[in-house]
Design goal:
The complex is a heterotrimer of chains A (about 325), B (about 290) and C (about 350).
Chain A (H helix, E strand, L loop, with lengths): L1 H5 E13 L5 E13 L3 E5 L6 H8 L7 E10 L2 E2 L5 H10 L1 E4 L3 H4 L6 H11 L9 H11 L16 H13 L5 E5 L7 H18 L2 E6 L2 H7 L2 E6 L2 E7 H6 L4 H8 L49 E4 L2 E3 L6
Helix pairs in contact in A: 5-6, 5-7
Chain B lengths: L2 H8 L6 H7 L2 H24 L29 H37 L1 H15 L3 H12 L3 H28 L2 H9 L3 H9 L4 H25 L10 H9 L8 H28 L1 H4 L1
Helix pairs in contact in B: 3-4, 3-12, 4-5, 4-7, 4-10, 4-12, 5-7, 6-7, 7-10, 8-9, 10-11, 10-12, 11-12
Chain C lengths: L10 E10 L16 E11 L4 E5 L6 H8 L7 E6 L2 E2 L5 H10 E4 L13 H11 L8 H11 L16 H13 L5 E5 L7 H18 L2 E6 L2 H7 L2 E6 L2 E7 H6 L4 H9 L9 E4 L35 E4 L2 E3 L2 H4 L14 E4 L4
Parallel strand pairs in C: 3-8, 3-9, 6-7, 7-8
Antiparallel strand pairs in C: 1-2, 1-4, 4-5, 9-10, 10-13, 11-14, 12-13
Classes of the chains: A alpha/beta (about 325), B mainly alpha (about 290), C alpha/beta (about 350).
Chain lengths: ~325, ~290, ~350
């Protein structure tokens, strides 16, 4: 029972179908299953095209017109997200789930001061009570993210990339969501600025009990900043578990190859990196079975049959026939 | 049943992507349609009607009827026939004006924009001076100064339009000049003239096309306006603006058809050019397609 | 009588300075006011033939400006650059053309350096035509050969840039850069815009090409892991100045400048076991002030009062090791060493 109470987001068997004019049609996300606990930091990692961004958009039901959630269940705080009506969704977006993207300045209104953007969001979600003036509310939010008060009266173009991302976090958090989805939030930022953003997110999680869903292609970021991780490949979650489980004992051949392909600061600088081939395109996806089969050094005939995830280690699940 | 199979059933005809893209621009289709009709009329009409453009053998100021769909004018000429001759003339004049202004503007804009520095400064001040005078006034003054016939009118209007094209092309060149692809070409060692020819010019085609369709529309209006005032095209040459002028005195007394029909066709020409221009511009804008 | 050096450095940079903004001339330096940025501030280094040198730094470090100055894409405010003994900034005509053949650059964004209206073949053919490297009839074959050397098939020749993935586009850029058979290749953030597998293909390719063709590279990046994989020697830049210059393995094993230390600690590593001690630099990156003193002093976790007044200079502390920190070169402190707890953030949470 306490496990259910600690769980914030539960995704079961999510499948998203995509129809494009140019690149064919297919299930860009298939059978995705994972859960995020309260206050937990969860990394969704995969290369471009692996379906990680689509998964996030499906959670807040902001999929593009060409995509459709075909199957699956998404439960947030006990509520069935896919069954909500428009008004309830509007309240959920922002109020329960906040989202931040790359290039924070592109998400900010260039014509409004930061404080106005903060207050607007707070008011929209019923958090701007009359007692505090707009200025005070804004400054409080900014202080929470470590920005000086002078940022309140600034416009987005006056802020550096790192500051803009923090301001965006302040705005999004003004609605006090329980889950923050961050899709490549620090791409393009300097390493030191990036590290500061993750420090900030970590302290916010501790203070506010905020859960974080971090979407990125950067394994190193996930290793350093997440408690649990799901590795995605061509629309499937191929492995999921605690970060040290998955990174120290990777089970799925794709995870192993991915870890081997990333240059690092430790270890032999000259070791050969390898990750052969490329992920199947949308119209090359097999009807069922493993989607990594073309590149996998361990492939077997039964890999093309339909199968599900297994759990070789408690909390550590993998989608691979080597383990069943 | 896979989604891929469902999709394939829907599409019956394989069309190249550029063609289907164009067809989606409804404004463009309508504009092109009108234009095609007008051009056909302009080309074929005069051939079919022979010399009846100047024939005054019909009754004066006859109202539109089965015999004369647009009626006749004050000296007995068939208005319909004259309108089609006028369309041909106006189209021709507009094309020449547009061509001259676009080419001159492009050459000057490319050179000034890419060279920068002092040359650019001088050119832009000249452009500013020219553009401080309303286009029509400038054209009118130039036409009167140069002499009062068709050729000088064309040159004058083209002259007045050129600064607009210079500005449009130059601003495009300025932004293209800073692009990494130009920097890459410089790093490769490509000489400036080749960079302009290979990389800059082709990427200005879309703005040039959009601007030149605007020029076509303006040219129709400006030549009509000038001819209305008696500058440039003189009677008895059929020209839409001149025809409006000739018929203006009869509107009050009830013979509206002499002026109104030429006016309608001016409007149709301008509308179709605008639609084509807008549609082409939208179509060529990479962001609106993808 | 000393022996003559057998090989001159391939590239020699001396006192390179670039100031952006109004009145960007050295004569007015003392009255330098607002609106001026010293992007590069007196940088010196040599590159020997066959070396792979990396320049590492964050935004505002000036590394990209240095690359562009080296290739004469930007005119420096002061300083000299020589390539194979010749003064790059004074070349013209045929000699300039020859320099451009020998020194090429690959930019960060693989897409914007390709003309959207050009096919891959035409893009690769551009240097071939400009420098008349082969006959017109042979261009297609040569383009195909160059594509093959970067691992792309001839089916790529008719494609346009929007039909390429990031990794493919970057490899096309590399193929184009190789068309003139350059001796020196500058790579400006070659993999920053790419995802994991594309990145991998490109850096493996770069390694292989270097071995096969014996080229000299200058790699600019903010990503230490890429630099580590490719480079023998590394320069660390901060706000326009070189703060450390060391062989790659020594830099990673024992960084000698506080900024390098902070940078290394902030770089996330997929295979780091356990929590990482991260050094936090105070405050935001600001432009270097007009005053003397170390540019890092306002943010440095090892700064003392003297750091704010003493001019920052790159000093040699060992063969091939240079550091611009007087506390280190005078052995006041030895890195790595204990860092005060308040500047350390424990990354990795409660693991």
């Amino acid at each position: 029972m306490s496990e259910a109470a600690a769980e914030l987001l539960r995704v079961r068997g999510l499948t998203v179908a995509l129809e494009t004019r140019r690149r064919g049609a297919g299930r860009v996300v298939e059978g995705v299953t994972f859960e995020i606990g309260r206050g937990e930091s969860f990394g969704l990692v995969g290369e471009s095209g692996s379906g990680k961004s689509m998964t996030a958009l499906a959670i807040v039901r902001l999929l593009p017109d060409a995509a459709r959630a075909e199957a699956g269940q998404i439960t947030l705080g006990g509520r069935d997200v896919l069954g909500l009506d428009d008004d309830e969704m509007r309240e959920l977006r922002g109020g329960q789930v906040g989202m931040i993207f790359q290039q924070a300045r592109a998400s900010l209104n260039p014509l409004m001061r930061i404080e106005d953007q903060i207050v607007r969001v707070a008011a929209l979600h019923g958090r701007a009570n009359g007692r505090r003036t707009r200025g005070t509310l804004a400054r409080e939010q900014l202080r929470e993210v470590g920005l000086p008060s002078r940022v309140a009266r600034s416009y987005p173009h006056q802020l550096s990339g790192g500051m803009a991302q923090r301001a965006l976090i302040a705005i999004v958090l003004a609605a006090r969501p329980k889950l923050l989805i961050a899709d490549e939030p620090t791409t393009g930022l300097d390493v030191t600025t990036e590290a500061e953003i993750y420090d900030l997110l970590r302290s916010l999680r501790a203070e506010l009990g905020l859960s974080l869903l971090l979407i990125t292609h950067d394994l190193a970021l996930v290793a350093q900043n997440c408690d649990r991780v799901a590795v995605m490949h061509a629309g499937h979650v191929v492995e999921t578990g605690a970060v040290d489980q998955v990174f120290e004992r990777p089970l799925h051949p794709y995870t192993q190859a991915l870890l081997n392909s990333v240059p690092t600061l430790e270890g032999d600088a000259n070791e050969a990196l390898a990750l052969e081939g490329r992920a199947p395109k949308l119209d090359e996806l097999p009807q069922h079975g493993c989607r990594f089969v073309e590149r996998c050094p361990h492939r077997m005939p039964k890999c093309s049959d339909p199968f599900g995830m297994v759990e070789p280690e408690p909390g550590h699940r993998v989608l691979c026939r080597l383990y069943d | 049943m896979s989604i891929a199979a469902e999709i394939r059933v829907r599409r019956r005809v394989i069309v190249p992507s550029w063609a289907s893209g164009l067809a989606r621009e409804h404004g463009l289709t309508v504009g092109v349609g009108i234009l095609v009709l007008l051009v056909l009329a302009a080309l074929l009409g005069p051939l079919a009607s022979g010399d009846s453009a100047t024939s005054t053998s019909y009754g004066n100021l006859a109202a539109p009827s089965a015999a004369h769909l647009f009626g006749t004018d004050d000296v007995g000429r068939d208005v319909l026939v004259r309108v089609f001759h006028a369309i041909r003339l106006d189209l021709l004049l507009a094309l020449v004006i547009c061509g001259l202004a676009t080419v001159a503007g492009a050459v000057i804009g490319l050179f000034s924009g890419f060279a920068g520095g002092f040359v650019d400064l001088v050119v832009m001040r000249l452009v500013d001076i020219m553009m401080s005078i309303p286009v029509f006034i400038l054209a009118l003054i130039t036409a009167v100064v140069l002499g009062n016939d068709e050729q000088t009118m064309v040159l004058a209007i083209a002259f007045a339009y050129t600064p607009v094209a210079v500005r449009v092309v130059r601003s495009q060149v300025l932004s293209l000049r800073e692009l990494p692809m130009v920097e890459t070409s410089r790093a490769i060692g490509t000489p400036a003239w080749r960079i302009v020819l290979w990389h800059i010019l082709p990427n200005t085609y879309s703005v040039l096309i959009a601007q030149s369709t605007l020029f076509l529309a303006w040219a129709i209006l400006d030549t009509a306006a000038m001819s209305f005032l008696g500058v440039g095209v003189h009677p008895p040459t059929p020209e839409l603006g001149a025809m409006i002028s000739e018929g203006s005195q009869y509107i009050v007394s009830g013979q509206w058809w002499v002026s109104v029909f030429p006016g309608i066709f001016i409007a149709l020409l301008v509308i179709s050019f605008n639609l084509v221009g807008d549609g082409l511009r939208d179509y060529l804008d990479p962001r609106s397609r993808r | 009588m000393t022996e003559l050096a057998t090989e001159r450095p391939l590239v020699r940079v001396e006192r390179l300075t670039k100031v952006f903004g109004r009145a960007a001339s050295l004569r007015r330096r003392r009255s330098a006011g607002h609106g001026q940025v010293r992007a590069v501030d007196g940088v010196d280094f040599d590159i020997e033939p066959g070396q792979v040198v990396g320049i590492v730094g964050e935004s505002g470090s000036g590394k990209t400006t240095v690359a562009r100055c080296l290739l004469r894409l930007i005119k420096p405010t002061d300083g000299t650059i020589s390539f194979q003994g010749a003064q790059v900034l004074r070349l013209s005509g045929r000699e300039l053309s020859s320099f451009r053949r020998q020194a090429q650059i690959v930019f960060q964004d693989p897409f914007t350096s390709l003309d959207p209206r050009f096919t891959v073949q035409r893009a690769i053919a551009e240097p071939l035509r400009v420098h008349e490297i082969c006959r017109r009839s042979e261009i297609a074959a040569e383009a195909e050969r160059l594509l093959a050397s970067v691992g792309l098939g001839e089916d790529f020749l008719p494609r346009y840039r929007h039909e390429l993935s990031g990794g493919e586009a970057q490899r096309v850029s590399i193929a184009r850069a190789l068309a003139t058979k350059p001796r020196f290749l500058v790579l400006d953030e070659p993999t920053s815009a790419l995802d994991a597998s594309a990145r991998l293909k490109v850096i493996s390719l770069l390694r292989r090409l270097r071995e096969e063709l014996g080229m000299t590279y200058l790699v600019i990046s903010h990503d230490l892991t890429i630099i580590r994989y490719l480079c023998d020697r590394i320069l660390v830049m901060y706000l326009g100045r070189v703060v450390e210059d060391a062989p790659a393995d020594e830099l990673f094993a024992a960084p000698q400048h506080p900024y390098t230390e902070a940078l290394l600690s902030a770089t996330p590593d997929a295979r780091a076991k356990g929590a990482v001690m991260r050094i936090r630099l105070h405050g935001e990156l600001e432009s270097a002030g007009a005053g003397n003193g170390c540019s890092l002093a306002p943010r440095c976790h090892r700064a003392v009062d003297e750091c704010f007044v003493r001019p920052q200079r790159l000093e040699q502390i060992a063969p091939a090791r240079f550091v611009a920190c007087h506390r280190v070169s005078e052995r006041q402190i030895t890195l790595p060493s204990r860092v005060e707890p308040d500047v350390v953030a424990r990354a990795g949470g409660e693991r």
